[in-house]
Amino acid sequence: MFRLKYPAEQSDPPLSPRETLPTMYDLPSEDPEESGLPDQFHDFQPELLGLTFRPANYPEDIVFTASDLNLYYDVHHQNWHKRPDWFAVLGVPRLYDGHDLRLSYVIWQEGVSPSIVVELLSPSTEKEDLGELEISDRNGANSQVEKPPSKWKVYEQILRIPYYLVFSRYTNQLRVFTLRSGHYVEMPLTESKIWIPEIELGLGIWEGEYRGIDRLWLRWYDSEGNWIPTDAESLEIAKQEIASVEQRAESAEQRAESAEQRAESAEQRAEYLLQRLRELGIEP
Asked: Where is the Putative restriction endonuclease domain (predicted)?
């Protein structure tokens, strides 16, 4: 069990705050429904996924992505829901009525299930995310109260989501499950990436800086293997290209000025030589 060490108990050199302070997983909320609220990685990683998810064969206005949004899946149990770390739905309006943001995603109203779900493993949800723990196991096998199905079962058997991807920030391992004959089958990955032909996009592990943090991130890439930039990155690339064009133009101008100076110098030299010849009585 997690236990803080008080200064009087410490005989070794002081530990860093990371080693001594409790995490949200050590001190869960008194409300069981809030025990898995996102940490910073669960905020930043879905954000990067959403910013780089640009299917080539779908207009932007009919692509909906969300993170940590309640996904309601059973019209007979309307309070049952799952909260994927990130998911994408294709073929539905990005906004309600063309201008309003969703407060949830209700399957029996939308009529379209997500095409892709990404779950980021955490200590409190790992077994359920990987289908190794049913809700009934977590709440006690003798409970007579009807319990909602596990996340795995909802994604696999109720919503039948074609692609279910799981990523661990602790091992930097990406695992991909696809539906085969109604059940999830893990795809063997020779590289830490997967190409999804239905959306003409790939998802892989990218090493770089996002939000000022340099680490391995999940990120989408295009058919040529290029990582899709965020709007901020595209703006920075455009600025660099403009600066490069301006620098080349300035260099060309400097070369032209230099050539003009050399031509002027040559002309002055020629006039000087003509003048010397005339002084010597030679008419050129």
From this structure: 25-201
| Sign of the C-alpha dihedral computed for residues 125, 37, 152 and 188 taken in this order | negative
**Region for residue 281 given its phi and psi (left: phi exceeds 0; alpha: psi -120 to 50; beta: otherwise):** left
pLDDT in tens, 3-45: 444 444 445 676 655 555 444 445 444 444 454 556 889 999 9
Whether residues 176 and 266 share a domain: the answer is no
Both 53 and 179 in one domain: the answer is yes
SS3 of 238-268: the string is HHHHHHHHHHHHHHHHHHHHHHHHHHHHHHH
The pLDDT confidence band at residue 134, using thresholds 50, 70 and 90, is low
At 9, list the tokens: 């108990």
Give the chain's domain count: 2
Per-residue burial over 8-27, b = 16 or more CB atoms within 10 Å of its CB, e = otherwise: eeeeeeeeeeeeeeeebeee
**Pairing status of strand 116-120 against strand 163-168:** parallel
43 plus 68 within the same structural domain: yes
> Residue 9 falls within a domain, yes or no?
no
